[in-house]
Here is the input.
Amino acid sequence: MVGSPPVLAFAAICAACIFCMVEVARAQDQNGTSAVTDPAEARALNSIFQQWGISAQSDQWNISGELCSGAAIDTTSFDDRNYNPFIKCDCSYNSSSTCHITQLKVYALDVVGVIPEQLWTLTYLINLYGFFSL
Here is the structure.
């Protein structure tokens, strides 16, 4: 019986760790899948990118067709040179169920033409960074 209390303590610690990991995974899943990009903004950005002949790097953001995903919602710096074109989103709207595009970077990508009307749909945009030949 001398070995029983340490075994019980170890089992209790393991159970507590498993419970915590399950709770963290559930919270991350809820945060990661419940928020979606405003559909009007998604259509607008896709149209703008199509007009400009550019596309998102799907391994960085716009994962599985959801614009506000990956680096667009994590701690990646908007100024990171490895992300171009790039957006950042704020997913705190409607009880964290809606994401709005707040930053758009299109730097030195030879974008030529007029400013697309769809840009006005991005009403939450606070930072537009780019070098344009418009």
